[in-house]
Each structure stands twice: as structure tokens, then as C-alpha cells.
Amino acid sequence: MKSSRHSKILEIISEQPIETQDELLSRLKTEGYRVTQATISRDIKDLRLVKTLGGDGKYRYAEAQAGSSDIRSNFDQLFVSSVVSMDIAQNIVVIKTLSGMANAVCAALDSTGNSSIVGTIAGDDTIFVACRSNEHAQSLASTLKQYKIK
After folding, report:
1. By CB atoms within 10 Å of each CB, which of 76, 102, 106, 120 scores lowest?
2. 73 lies in some domain
3. What's the CATH number where 138 sits?
4. What is the pLDDT along the chain (150 residues), one digit of tens a residue?
């Protein structure tokens, strides 16, 4: 079922612009899939989907390009265009994004393979990044702050 759903998601995003998880959820339900928002969120992460800027100036889901430089480029672009603020609470880095962009930024961050990150959780506009220690959180935040935050 999961692989069938993943194939359908890839088909849907290749055929039409999907800007939000809600749009993808609606489209999957129309196609006969029984899914929840949490399932869609996991699928986006599993498929390593990213949001890319379309010619119309709107962000939409797309497959990440193969190759580490493409993943890095996607992360750079997403981070710069989507992150609003960042803060640290001990070993947790909290990243605030534009509405609807947290999952894409989180998936891109996960794809960097940063060894100081234990795990991540993304909501609609907030990402929690659990680091191995307070020092790792400080280091990660310092690295991320080098990007221009909107």
C-alpha cells in the first residue's frame, strides 16, 4: 500500500502543481487513498520531496534532484527563502518557517546528514531539531545563522 501511495504521490506532483500537504491529501483521497495529514507528512519525508519555486512565483512539491550538490542547493535555497527565525533551548534548535514550509525545510535538513542531529520533527511552520548535546545545538545554530534569515 505504501509503495503504491508513494508512486501515486510522485505521479500527482509531476502532473500538477501541489503547493500544500492539504492539497496532496485531497488529491490522494480523490484517487481513493485513505490517508491522514501525518501519513502525508511522513511520505513527503520518505520521498525526500522538496518545495521548489515555480515560474509563477509559487512553491510546489517536487522530487529532490539526485546528487549531493543538488540536495545542498535545495537546502540552501529553501532555508534562505523559508526560514523566519531560529532559537535554541538546550539541545533543541527551534526553526520557524513560513506557513507550510517546515516539512520541506526539515526534509532538506535531514538530507544533509549532519551527525550532530539526532532527529527532527516538522509541523506546518515549526521544526524541532534534537541535537546530541547543548554544544552541538549551539554549533548547528551558528552554522545555520550564516544563511540570511528573512
Report:
1. 76
2. no
3. 3.30.1360.40
4. 788 899 999 999 988 899 899 999 999 999 999 999 889 988 888 888 888 777 777 888 888 765 444 445 567 777 888 899 999 999 999 999 998 888 888 888 887 778 899 999 999 899 999 999 999 999 999 988 887 664
Count of domains observed in the chain? 2
With cell 511552520, the residue in question is: 125
Detail the DSSP E strand segments found in 10-150: 49-53, 59-63, 83-89, 92-97, 117-122, 126-131
The parent domain of residue 38 ranges over: 2-63
* Helices first, then strands: H and E counts in the chain: 6, 6
pTM above 0.70, yes or no: no
Distant-in-sequence, close-in-space partners of 67: CB < 8 Å, separation ≥ 6: none
* DSSP summary character for residue 143: H
C-alpha cell at 137: 545545538
